[in-house]
Amino acid sequence: MRVVHYLNQFFGGLGGEEKAGAAPQAQDGAVGPGRLLEQVLGEDAQVVRTIICGDNYAAENLDELTAFVLRETAEANAELFVAGPCFEAGRYGVAAGAVCSAVSAELEIPAVTGMALENPGVDLYRQDIYIVDSGQSASDMRNVLEKMAGIALKLARGEEIGLPAEEGYISRGILRDAFVEQTSAQRLVEMLFAKTAGEPFESELPAPTFTPTPAPPPVLDMSKAKVALVTDGGLVPKGNPDNISAYAATNWGSYDITGTTDLKGEDYEISHRGYDTRYVEQDPDRLVPLDVLRELEQEHVVGEIHSHFIATSGLANPLANSRRLGREIAQNLKDQGVDAVILTST
């Protein structure tokens, strides 16, 4: 069986973040984790081509990367496509999910990848492809690749894939018909008794849970408060120096506004694909209202404006990743002595 394997710049041996802008390239044979992938797939499978791409390039040029992967995979006469595993690397996961989904849909060959649950690629592509739960540590590479190989071989042979808990992949949110001995009423009553008795039970339709966030104490005197501006609307300086992705962003940026009273459109751009950005591009103060806040500062309504505004993109961002970004931003502002935040969105 002919296999094509997708890797990012780190696992592909090009380097770390300094090579994150590397354009996609194809190499014959297995590279890095691909050699271990060949072992776990067995003697009847061979990695005939490895595609390597930098994470930043993939995030900023996903359409070009997808076209490259489709072309190289077709030319290799591949019968199976594997990406990663990506573990917690967000840009890597988004790219792997995108190319696996495209290969599966357009070339109609099996595709599988692996990611940690918190990876933004999971929520974006879990319904399209099989994503093995890789956990967080790359030290578990062999075990993860064995699970990926098991699913890949079943897909290639046209065999039925079992339940997520049995096969080790992340739930795709797909309900299956099944024959069971008990009626729904009987199962419901059993679960209800177990719940009231404090005994373990497993719901057939688990609901999402959100940890409540208590409101912070109020600022007693805003005229003495240090206020920061934060947005998830993707406003960044021209050139996007922090390479914040337009969707499923995994990082944020902090930008100096010391001495600035008005944000100019010619100095900024938008890294966000979820709204009509023209009005913000004309006047960035519509998203990050520095001009009005400066007036309030001069009128002593607020004590001081923080020297930097913070921005990221909130589009298609999984909850776990959003929480991480929020904690990082909050800690940064706390360290800078900020008392209150004006958070703007699209």
Your description of this structure?
It contains eleven helices and 13 strands. With 346 residues, the protein is an alpha/beta fold. The chain is globular, with a radius of gyration of 24 Å. The mean pLDDT is 92. The chain folds into two domains: 166 residues, Rossmann fold; 123 residues, no CATH class. The chain starts with a strand and ends with a strand.
Beta strand count: 13
Compute the average pLDDT: 92
Tell me roughly what share of residues is in helical segments: 25-40%
Reported for the largest beta sheet, the result is:
6 strands, mixed
CATH-defined fold name of the largest domain: Rossmann fold
Defining traits:
single chain, 346 residues, alpha/beta, Rossmann fold, 2 domains, six-stranded mixed sheet, five-stranded mixed sheet, 11 helices, 13 strands, 34% helix, globular
